[in-house]
Every structure is written in structure tokens, then in C-alpha cells.
Amino acid sequence: MAETRKLAADRGLANVKTLTANAEDLPFPDASFDLVVCRLAAHHFRKIGRISSARRIRVLMPGGTIGIVDNVAPDAAIVPGRTADELRHCAALFNAFKKLSDPSHVRCLGLLEWKTLLRRCRLHRHARRVPGQGDRVRDLGAAHALERGHDRAAHGDAAR
């Protein structure tokens, strides 16, 4: 937070506030933000599966955008031609490795799992992926910019 305050001051931004909060229980009123970004954090969330819960992206305004950038575990979208057992094994090894390098790691989702969870939120996709470095790793750099529908009464989940 100190770095954020310093950068804001250096840029003359007087409307920046910092706050430490649990990403799964944000202390803001509904529809508070037109942009919510979750960058390299979702794999630390213990309840990431609740992203499809109607309460979770409640802080996003109708017409707002959520940007999610995170590591993804190997799955059929990233490593085609493998059996389901091979993919489960690869994902388990990938997550075990991540846990060794960062004990706060919980689990990286696969790209297909992310797409399913985000679809349940009824968010409209505007950007599919960030260009990667070659065909094999293109989906590892996947990022989604999503917009909450204006006609949606319910909300989704995930911000940090």
C-alpha cells in the first residue's frame, strides 16, 4: 500500500485510497466500481468456485468491466490430444509445483474451467486472449475482459 500511495502522490493523484480487504468479501457497496481488476491473485482464493455465485461481483456497476489475469493449469484447451487422466495429472503436478514456490498458492484453474465459471456469471466477453509466445503457450497468457450485462439483476464473483 505504501508503494501505491507513493506512486499516486508522484503522479499528483489525490483521489486514490488504499485499503486492505479480503477479496472474497469486499467492504464496498453494490455497484461501486466500473472497473474491477484481479491480477495474479485468483489462484490464492480459497473459494474461487464461488465466482458463479450471484453475490460475488456485486461491486461491479452495470456495464462495468472486470479484468482477470492469472496463471492457468494445463487442460484440453492448452494441451490438446491428452487423455482426461493425463490432464488431471499434469494439472496436479503444476499446482503442486506452484505450491512449492509459494505456500499461499491454493489452485490454478484450467482455461476451460475459467470459461465455465465466467459464463455462469453471465458476463459478456469482449477480449479473448493476450497474444502469447508461440502456439503452445498462447493460451497460458489468456486474459478476459468481461462486461456485466445491463439487464442482469444478479452479480458474479472475484476481485482483488
Report on this structure:
There is one protein chain. With 160 residues, the chain is of the alpha+beta class. The chain has a single domain (28-148), classed as Rossmann fold. Helices cover 23% and strands 18% of the residues. It has helices at residues 2-10, 84-101, 111-120, and strands at 33-39, 60-69, 123-127, 143-148.
Question: Which properties best describe this structure?
Answer:
Rossmann fold, alpha+beta, globular, four-stranded mixed β-sheet, 160 residues, 18% strand, 4 strands, disordered C terminus
Q: Ends: how far apart?
A: 13 Å
| CATH level-4 homologous superfamily | Vaccinia Virus protein VP39
- Poorly predicted runs are 126-160
Strand content: 15-25%
Integer tally of domains: 1
Number of strands: 4
Q: Which architecture per CATH? A: 3-Layer(aba) Sandwich
Sheet of most strands? 4 strands, mixed
Helix content: 10-25%
Q: How would you state the average pLDDT, rounded?
A: 76
Name the overall outline: globular
Q: CATH top level?
A: Alpha Beta
Give a topology summary.
Layout: H1 2-10, E1 33-39, E2 60-69, H2 84-101, H3 111-120, E3 123-127, E4 143-148
Parallel strand pairs: 1-2
Antiparallel strand pairs: 2-4, 3-4
Short description:
This protein has helices spanning 2-10, 84-101, 111-120, and strands at 33-39, 60-69, 123-127, 143-148. It is α+β, with helices and mostly antiparallel strands. Residues 126-160 have low confidence and may be disordered.
